[in-house]
């Protein structure tokens, strides 16, 4: 299922070269990204892939989007969002989708790290659980009531048990197993955080299955060669000008890994 069909970046670029986020996207101003069931935003550090993912999340208004900073220019980020646009997709009967699924979400690498920290540091457990519920839409008054419930106590005990049972990587996998559900649009920022190569591939295979069989759509920012090589995805290379798609084996980061292991090939023979 294609919930989000396309996204057009603002074509306006401020004459001031330091205006955010204009300067991040000046090399792709006015570009249109066409989305598949799985679409990857690839780029090295500083390419703007995470910023672009957050721009899309803000424009769509999905859960988890972060307010964009303006760095002293209060209207620049909002102007960029106003001048950007998107088109939703079509359902199985070729009817235009009017709104995104309610569970659609933007997940940052920081969310995953926060989940790990929440589990590993018992002093953060209570605040962490309440923060999670408020982030999902619970009011502060409801959160205060929830804190005294049996459900809250049970969840707290389960997380404390997990503290001894799971490593960082296992916690990350558990996080995705809990939150990646059928029939949703997910924007994932570097989901490979804390995962071994084997688990990165396992997660990518899970994403492939959700997209192919369970009507989920993914837009993912990553530079992991293991994720890139496993996903059945359309890949946009943000390091290229003009913006264009590429095969995973053409990407610079993948070539770097290939050259590194080739250099030490004799050690594996």
From TrEMBL:
<protein>
    <submittedName>
        <fullName>ATPase</fullName>
    </submittedName>
</protein>
<feature type="domain" description="AAA+ ATPase">
    <location>
        <begin position="35"/>
        <end position="247"/>
    </location>
</feature>
<dbReference type="GO" id="GO:0005524">
    <property type="term" value="F:ATP binding"/>
</dbReference>
<dbReference type="InterPro" id="IPR003593">
    <property type="entry name" value="AAA+_ATPase"/>
</dbReference>
<dbReference type="InterPro" id="IPR051396">
    <property type="entry name" value="Bact_Antivir_Def_Nuclease"/>
</dbReference>
<dbReference type="Pfam" id="PF13304">
    <property type="entry name" value="AAA_21"/>
</dbReference>
<dbReference type="InterPro" id="IPR027417">
    <property type="entry name" value="P-loop_NTPase"/>
</dbReference>
<dbReference type="GO" id="GO:0016887">
    <property type="term" value="F:ATP hydrolysis activity"/>
</dbReference>
<dbReference type="InterPro" id="IPR003959">
    <property type="entry name" value="ATPase_AAA_core"/>
</dbReference>
């Amino acid at each position: 299922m294609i919930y989000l069909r396309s996204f057009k970046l603002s074509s306006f670029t401020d004459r001031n070269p330091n205006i955010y986020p204009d300067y991040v996207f000046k090399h792709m101003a006015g570009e249109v990204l066409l989305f598949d069931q799985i679409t990857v935003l690839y780029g090295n550090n500083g390419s703007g892939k995470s910023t672009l993912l957050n721009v899309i999340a803000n424009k769509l208004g999905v859960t988890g989007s972060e307010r964009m900073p303006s760095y002293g220019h209060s209207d620049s980020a909002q102007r960029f969002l106003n001048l950007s646009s998107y088109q939703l997709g079509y359902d199985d009967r070729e009817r235009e989708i009017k709104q995104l699924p309610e569970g659609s979400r933007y997940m940052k690498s920081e969310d995953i790290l926060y989940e790990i920290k929440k589990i590993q540091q018992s002093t953060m457990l209570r605040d962490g659980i309440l923060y999670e519920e408020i982030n999902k839409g619970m009011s502060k008054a409801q959160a205060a009531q929830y804190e005294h419930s049996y459900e809250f106590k049970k969840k707290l005990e389960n997380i404390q048990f997990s503290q001894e049972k799971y490593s960082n990587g296992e916690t990350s996998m558990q996080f995705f197993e809990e939150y990646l559900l059928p029939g949703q649009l997910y924007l994932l920022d570097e989901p490979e955080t804390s995962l071994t190569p084997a688990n990165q591939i396992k997660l990518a295979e899970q994403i492939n299955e959700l997209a192919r069989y369970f009507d989920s759509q993914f837009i993912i920012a990553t530079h992991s060669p293991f994720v890139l090589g496993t996903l059945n995805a359309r890949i946009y290379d943000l390091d290229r000008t003009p913006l264009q798609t590429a095969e995973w084996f053409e990407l610079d980061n993948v070539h770097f890994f290939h050259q590194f292991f080739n250099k030490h090939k004799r050690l594996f023979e």
